[in-house]
Structure of Strictosidine synthase conserved region domain-containing protein:
Amino acid sequence: MRLQPHFAAAVAAFVATAWVVHMRSDVRKSGEDVEGMQDWQYEGVSIDGGVGPESFAFDPRGEGPYTGISDGRIIKWQRSENRWLNFSVTSLQRNEECGGAYEEHAKKEHVCGRPLGLCFSMVSNELYIADAYNGLVVVGPNGGTPSRLISTLDVQEEKEPLAFSNGLDVDQRTGAVYFTTSSSKYQRRNYISLILSRDKSGRLMKYEPETEQLSIVLNNLSFANGVALSKDGDYILIIETTTCRVLRYWLETPKAGTLEVFAEVPGFPDNIKLSPRGGFWVGIYSRREKFIEWILSYPWIGKVLLSLPLDITKAYSYLAKLKRSSGMAIRLSEDGYILEVVEDKKWNKGRSISEVEERDGILWVGSIDAPFVSKYNIPVSKQNNK
Ligand SMILES: *[C@@H]1O[C@H](CO)[C@@H](O)[C@H](O)[C@H]1NC(C)=O
Ligand SMILES: CC(=O)N[C@H]1CO[C@H](CO)[C@@H](O)[C@@H]1O
């Protein structure tokens, strides 16, 4: 669609005005910020040299968590030393410029790597990582240079150089790795455009280490993101960020091969993880505010915004900061019902949430824009309350 410049400018002005009006109508009282969370013990575990711990993994000995950050490193939390250790990286092209100011990291992701979803295989002891630019990366149990890079390009029919790999889980019975590619048109650093364009080129992929076979399980997903296998491996849940849905794809049982909607959530979901207390934790990037709802309900607004000569991701993060729209964590039951909601504006400082991993009574909370990992001790009363 070619637009007259004055028309585009008018729409931009209109959208900006609508946003400001919406912001004013949505001011919250500060007292509501930590309601119900007074007895949650909090600790912010800061990270040096990068931001955005996006996902967590624990190794077969239960050590960690491990997480990937904005400068392309995978770091490991060494509990006994109370500090992060450098574990690995996801790119073989890294140079001395990987590092420096956090604000510059997104520009260098295609060179330095951007590790997102990660999970250890208890079958092989290796760490599998979905990297936003390098596809599927495999690292040995002692870290260091990746032992294998499995490019997703071979099976992307279009042979496009973009395969934004994102969420990942391992079937611990067989060692098979399931992971998503969010889009074959947009890169990670342009995720706001990915949402506005309503792109449907996301996929669920499967890698079988024994045969080294890589295959497409599902096509045509709207911003495919986190994935989580059920406890017994009967089905896999897949996050669709743009549609705010959790999809369920049956792998076994007579329903094998069926895809259905598992849950709809009140915000843009990112990663999903099994909870040891049952069900699944979903990290919500931000609430689905009325304003963004309005934009998404009219496809032409998204098209106009994308046609404007501005960096839409930057514009969005600027407005989101003004508005302090914050993330939350939701625990879904195995039937897709909401069991628990954690929304913390005080400690998390209104940042987005990418993943929530529950382990031994602790919630490890990651955020794509935070220079720390949030760690919450779940109150005993809640721990018993499944
Ligand atoms: C990890 O790597 C970063 C970047 O190369 C470096 O600045 C930091 O000192 C290293 N940390 C440790 C604990 O070795
Ligand atoms: C309905 C639809 O969008 N179908 C597409 C699903 O994905 C395949 C492969 O990428 C396309 O060829 C279809 O057009």
The CA atoms of residues 88 and 144 lie 5 Å apart. The domain at 5-384 is CATH 2.120.10.30 (Neuraminidase). Residues 20-34 have pLDDT under 50 and may be disordered. The longest strand covers residues 213-221.
